[in-house]
């Protein structure tokens, strides 16, 4: 079933239950939209999207399990008719570029209003695209980051002053892997240490 036969069928995936529930209630007030599935993890999002045959999947960038972009990549194969929108509280330029390269049709911050999100859902369902103008401008001005998404994630956690063991716990990695990512990031950014690397990456909008 597709949205051409009735309301656009929407999946909302976000591990923050309050945000997800509130968005679902607001989108369901729109006559032409229907939230038919919700998910709190990437795995749940994949299963629910395929099970319900949704038209548009609204995916949190950072959630347990596969992240939103990885879910979008997998849905492209499992449910080709589904359009994906990424919402994020961490709008790094590298994330935007990765999302667009993965076929994501919409990319916007979590500060976006429900009315704007509803319009973005309609836009991507019709085959259009929507990228938040500020995030797009930041991505253009920052240039291409030499960091992999994982290196950027680890460096962002390091920027908060967390010890290696805590970074490893939060990123679901081993301490040794965290050290390797940090060392690689420091080298790519031509920095003297992780603190200089964090400062440079933040200044350039890469974390």
Tell me what the structure shows.
The protein is of the alpha/beta class and 207 residues long. It has two domains: 3-141, Rossmann fold, CATH 3.40.50; 149-203, Orthogonal Bundle (Arc Repressor Mutant, subunit A), CATH 1.10.10.10. It is built from ten helices and six strands, in the order βαβαβαβαβαβααααα. The protein has a six-stranded parallel beta sheet with strand order 2-1-3-4-5-6, with helices on both faces. Helix 7 packs across helix 10. The mean pLDDT is 90.
Quickly describe the structure:
It is built from ten helices and six strands; from the N terminus they run E-H-E-H-E-H-E-H-E-H-E-H-H-H-H-H. By secondary structure, it is an alpha/beta fold.
SSE inventory with pairings:
Elements: E1 8-13, H1 17-27, E2 33-39, H2 42-52, E3 56-60, H3 68-78, E4 83-88, H4 93-101, E5 106-109, H5 114-125, E6 130-131, H6 133-142, H7 149-159, H8 164-171, H9 175-188, H10 194-203
Parallel strand pairs: 1-2, 1-3, 3-4, 4-5, 5-6
Helix pairs in contact: 2-3, 4-6, 7-8, 7-9, 7-10, 8-9
């Amino acid at each position: 079933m597709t949205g051409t036969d009735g309301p656009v069928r929407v999946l909302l995936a976000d591990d923050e239950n309050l945000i997800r529930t509130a968005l679902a209630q607001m989108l369901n007030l729109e006559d032409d939209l229907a939230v038919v599935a919700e998910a709190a993890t990437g795995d749940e999002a994949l299963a629910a999207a395929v099970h319900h045959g949704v038209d548009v999947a609204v995916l949190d960038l950072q959630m347990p399990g596969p992240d939103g972009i990885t879910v979008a990549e997998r849905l492209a194969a499992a449910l080709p008719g589904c359009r994906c929108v990424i919402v994020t509280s961490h709008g790094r330029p590298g994330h935007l570029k990765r999302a667009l390269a993965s076929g994501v049709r919409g990319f916007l911050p979590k500060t976006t209003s429900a009315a704007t999100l509803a319009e973005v859902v309609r836009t991507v369902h019709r085959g259009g695209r929507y990228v938040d103008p500020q995030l797009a401008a930041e991505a253009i001005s920052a240039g291409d980051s030499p960091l992999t998404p994982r290196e950027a994630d680890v460096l962002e956690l390091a920027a908060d002053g967390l010890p290696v063991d805590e970074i490893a716990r939060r990123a679901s990695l081993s301490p040794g892997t965290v050290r390797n990512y940090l060392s690689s990031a420091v080298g790519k950014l031509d920095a003297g240490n992780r603190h200089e690397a964090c400062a440079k990456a933040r200044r350039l909008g890469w974390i």
